[in-house]
Write a structure and sequence with these properties.
homodimer; alpha/beta; 434 Repressor (Amino-terminal Domain); Rossmann fold; 3 domains; 6-stranded parallel β-sheet; 4-stranded parallel β-sheet; 13 helices; disordered C terminus; DNA-binding
DNA sequence: CAGCCGAACGTTAGCGCTAACGTTCTGTCG
DNA sequence: CGACAGAACGTTAGCGCTAACGTTCGGCTG
């Protein structure tokens, strides 16, 4: 590790034969330098391998062109969001630094925002599913944008339209002819889960279908809960012909239970998930699901933050982005199966008792 | 966004009625302050919500207690590694900031290391699978540790023992009685892929089993390549009874192909993967695989970096951590199936032609 | 009791940079 | 041709902090 000294702006200026301030102006592309001199300075800086010291820049109150992101890395879409955000940020000549929230730690997150505040020009917080540190961010006088996956915040924010997605999922099943449609819920402490449940009930009502509480089973977004919920549903006398699971993971749990019971998806039961996780298009059956607009969320959040940094004091904006129904193999029209379905049911009933 | 001003050390000192330097000493837990005064200052700093300005600290050449990590977020185990590293760092009272490498971008990565250098006390680089920017890091005079997933570096580094893992996988199959064992390779530009292939050949030789080039199919770690490779293997006159896939993703691809051909795993063909990706214990069949020592890698890399930061000029250390065979459902002893296997083969042969 | 030593402080300089002023010099217009 | 504007620079101060020195003072030694 050789202790070579990185050149400072003063050294660049000296070599270029100008004052420190002229060099600063040239490098930051500010007026007050003649074109020839500017080019000269830029060339010399480049040759010397000059890199601006962001710590010093930030200390003087200037922009560092860094945005900070606070996120829980283990949460499903986080890496996709981060990749998208990084690309958008870089396109705007910003760099992005990520602070990875510990999984379960109650240390004051105040200091984390503080730390980023000292480095970055603004912060995007991808709100974890469960968090109690929103208030502590309120004092940070640095632009903050939140991406909400489950919790509402008072900051300018970006969210996926879970309600609309849930409606689309259910309408899809209804259009396929299904009438007995079950719902495996998510963790209702999260707005996303509540919105999806609300969509289930609302669309049922709109379609004038009866609401059967037995068809609405509680889950928690995990595979196991989907598995167990489906077992409960299969044990019903009049079991559903379709299931809307609050997310893909629990949908696959439900599918596993259905198969274990000797039934097929979508042959016997259609299943819709939510999220469009990457393997949803690879596993068998490829899952019909609702795609989260991750790229748009990434783009919108970064652009919103950059606008705030630029001083456009946008009123506390709440951006809600549309989700999209992706039809794959796990759903199929009901009608053609009706008779076979009935036959199987009778058969099983007689065998069972 | 109220423009409340965060207290500086000078303000804390003023309120405490001491000089700025005494306050600094107290807060940084350095000698030269009487116990009573120290406690006083700490209390007041806490009350005022003082947070040290890392930019200013770094500017004076002091430690910031931040470690930087450069990683490609979309690469398989990155989030697990990062979570582990974050936990270890926090335990040592360090914070961690992650720079997410763009997927494919040829911008000089020099400036990224530079940026982190100005903020952090040391940097861990999780080497992406394909990269040409190792040299540009060489000039950074800041401790650097690499985690190698595919490329060798000249820095102190931490790696998983791919060769040993490959050996374990193959020995497992041989112990189960398999003799015709195929290999679906990874991308050979990566040392990890080469090491696994080398293990395949070496163990075959050690076991005095014949090496059949037809059983060694090229892949690229992706699901599709596993699928296609397995199709080739199934088309062989004398098809293998076991497959060692260079990673779990391609292993599941192979399993999909085997099933599509009407065969079962492990009934007809045993499959071993490599990596132990999270879903390997959830999908059907649960995959026998080689677990990467991610937690140990995280721990080792952070500890190594902290040692370097502490000035223990450890000689360019290369830490290789052992992998672990995880036996699940996708492998089974050959012998009991021998006759049935033969029967099936004859049957298929006669039907086929 | 002079001399000295070390603990407990305070003061100064400077890290690398930028904002906010000076300063110089050229052109330009009444 | 003086006054004045404005472009092209240079100088100064200071961001918040710490290293490296001063300074003070109680206590100990011979």
């Amino acid at each position: 590790m050789m202790k070579r000294h990185y050149p400072t702006l003063a050294e660049v200026a000296k070599v270029a034969g100008v004052s420190l301030m002229t060099a600063s102006r040239a490098i930051n592309n500010r007026p007050g330098v003649s074109p020839e001199k500017r080019e000269d300075i830029l060339r010399i800086a480049d040759e010397m391998g000059y890199v601006a010291n962001r710590a010093a820049q930030k200390l003087t109150g200037a922009r560092t062109r860094i945005i900070g992101v606070v996120a829980e890395l283990h949460t499903p879409f986080t890496s996709d969001l981060l990749l998208g955000m990084g690309a958008v940020a870089r396109a705007a000549d910003y760099e992005m630094l990520v602070y990875s929230l510990p999984v379960c730690d109650r240390r004051p997150p105040h200091s984390i925002i503080e730390m980023l505040r000292q480095i970055a020009d603004g912060v995007i917080v991808i709100l974890p599913y469960e968090s109690d540190y929103l208030e502590s961010m309120a004092t940070a006088h640095i632009p903050v944008v939140t991406i909400e996956q489950g919790i509402e915040s008072a900051f300018p924010s970006v969210t996926a339209d879970n309600y609309q997605g849930g409606c689309a999922a259910l309408r899809h099943l209804i259009e396929l002819g299904h009438r007995r449609i079950a719902f495996i819920s998510g963790n209702d402490r999260l707005t996303s889960a509540r919105d999806r449940r609300r969509a289930y009930r609302d669309v049922l009502a709109q379609a004038r279908l009866p609401y059967d509480p037995a068809l609405e089973v509680d889950g928690d977004f995990l595979r196991k809960s989907g598995f167990e919920a489906a077992q409960k549903l299969l044990a019903l006398d009049d079991r559903p012909t379709a299931i809307f699971a609050a997310n893909d993971t629990s949908a696959y749990g439900a599918i596993a239970a259905i198969r274990e019971a000797g039934l097929s998806v979508p042959g016997d039961i259609s299943v819709v998930g939510f999220d469009d996780i990457p393997i949803a298009s690879q596993l068998h059956p490829q899952l019909t699901t609702i795609r989260q607009p991750l790229q748009q969320m990434a783009r919108a959040s970064v652009n919103l933050l950059l606008a705030l940094i630029a001083g456009l004091d946008a009123p506390s904006e709440q951006i809600v982005l549309p989700t999209q129904l992706i039809v794959r193999e796990s759903t199929t029209p009901l009608k053609v199966k009706r008779k076979k379905e009935e036959a199987v049911k009778v058969e099983r009933a007689s065998v069972g008792r």
